[in-house]
Amino acid sequence: MKFTANQIAEILEGEIEGNENVEVFKLSKIEEGEKGSLTFLSNPKYTPHIYSTEASITIVNKDFIAEKEVKTTLIKVLNPYEAFSKLLEVYSEVKLNKSGIESPSFISKSASIGKNIYLGAFAYISDNVIIGNDVKIYPNVHIGENVVIESNTTIFTGAKIYSETIIGKNCAIHSGSIVGADGFGFAPNSKGTFSKIPQIGNVIIEDNVDIGALTTIDRATLGSTIIRKGVKLDNQIQVAHNVEIGENTVIAAQTGIAGSVKIGENCMIGGQVGIAGHLVIGNNVRIQAQTGVGRNINDNEIIQGSPALNYSDYFKSYVYFKKLPELVATINLLEKEIKALKEK
Question: Which of 49, 142, 174, 241 is the catalytic position?
Fold first, then answer.
């Protein structure tokens, strides 16, 4: 896709200095700009690069004045960083603006399909599925029986949505993710082995949820595993059966959440966090990376460590931990002096 400086300026409500007809078809860093690329300048540290960049178009601040000749066409805006971000959104919308049903793909006769959908090749839509308007389902996606997918949701290549899952509006589920697989439910039996507990619940994903690649969300044993509105999940996260994640919570990669955990609203959970089962995490909680959570967490707590400690307590303790060899040596010396004094 190609865009002219004039088209970009119109989107950004910017002012052009240079060739309004110059075209771009890719993005670049300002220091790596080349012909046909679009870049931006927001950090003054990178200003010297604007005089050497080969980028065809550069977005700059409205008050930028070149001290010498520039080869790049300038588009002046109020905030270059925000303008560039807006342009990325527009580009993404255009790039992902697919529609139509590719062949081969399969749609059950009992499925209900909305308007303006995209269905990629080798996608499979099972019995009694309901798909809303403007939904995009990329190639090699499997949609199980009785699934509901509401409008403007995108499911990327290779994702698997098991039966009875409900997905809200404006969601994105990225490649390789699996939603609705059985929870890890096994019980010891009289033979000394483990018997599988049937997992007959489902998964509910509310509106405006983003689920990263290769993330797994297990169905509930009974009832529902629930991902509330606005939740953002990174890649490679495990969400176990009957977990509930509150609105607008964000979770980084490789976090594992055991069964029946309840996480509140507006939480931020770092990468590689482990949360034990049946715990309650309050609202506005911050959990630092690689923390092991084995207790309930109150609202507004910031925690770190394994097992987790209060954030400030952890750092106070860590100061002493770093000095542990010195402290041990001091204690040993004191013990010797005390012993010598006692002997006298």
Answer: 241
